[in-house]
Target: pyruvate dehydrogenase (acetyl-transferring)
Amino acid sequence: MLASRNVRAAAGARVAAAPGQRAILAARPGRRTLIAAKAQKKEIMMWEALREAIDEEMERDPTVCVMGEDVGHYGGSYKCTLGLYKKYGDMRVLDTPICENGFMGMGVGAAMTGLRPIVEGMNMGFLLLAFNQISNNCGMLHYTSGGQFKTPLVVRGPGGVGRQLGAEHSQRLESYFQSIPGVQLVACSTVRNSKALLKAAIRSDNPIIFFEHVLLYNVKGEAGGADEVACLERAEVVREGTDVSIFTYSRMRYVVMQAVNDLVKKGYNPEVIDLISLKPFDMETISNSIKKTRKAIIVEECMKTGGIGASLSAVINESLFYELDHEVIRLSSQDVPTAYAYELEAATIVQSSQVVEAVERVVGGRVAAHA
Model:
């Protein structure tokens, strides 16, 4: 709107600002001059970015549909489908009964017929009730049918620890789903990558479990345009460094960056990698980072036993063992149910102080020598 508005210059001529710009009149001695400045992009919350992604893909592709509990009239448990029922109707935005195994099977069947369903779990913990459909059908169908069927299905929804939702609603399910053949795992972490990654997931022919953290829905930032689609298998180098490689994802990205602020003040120079793709790993980015720093710390919200960190640590030791100057350090959640009490909940997961301590332990001697 501002970009297309004409502004009258002092001489009386009408000058239009260029697309994507706003016109500003600035005073100069003896005259008024038109200055073109780039319009500031509006910041939105992550739930809005996810909603934009779904809306734009439904508008672009009539085979995209949404199903799940309260995704229609209510607009989703975190408003990620707000207004889509009114815009697209009940044939494309379907409120389902409270029967996770049933509507997950419906999503798999819809994908088999050529649709691109987005199945929302009101809470990712509820999807344990649909584990049979996700494992035996969603993940394996392309293989067991000899390639006759594809399942272009996105399973998305909120999960993670941090809102005092108790044990059952604070699940960390990455470790459960990583062992399913044929399923990709993606974890978004910012406004920009959440939108671009979800659009890519919807367009993919593979079944994808898309993890969204409950504490990140209200994070603000700029979202990309309708044409910005991310690579699902690519990690992000959040911060370049030389001392140690810190691998993380989802909400722990922010915990790590909080620790990095303290570490930089102490003279450390850590590299931070947001994995994004939890299955498969982006081994090119991981390898390049470790060959540079020769040290690795993995920070995750998942449980330590059988978690994403366990898998990544194993892969690093198998393929990059001789590049390491120190054993791989894993900082993971405690292997306990998540408590309701805030203090106990916080004690379950990794804190920034633990990241600082780990870096000091791994790199401390060399930094002190250069101090």
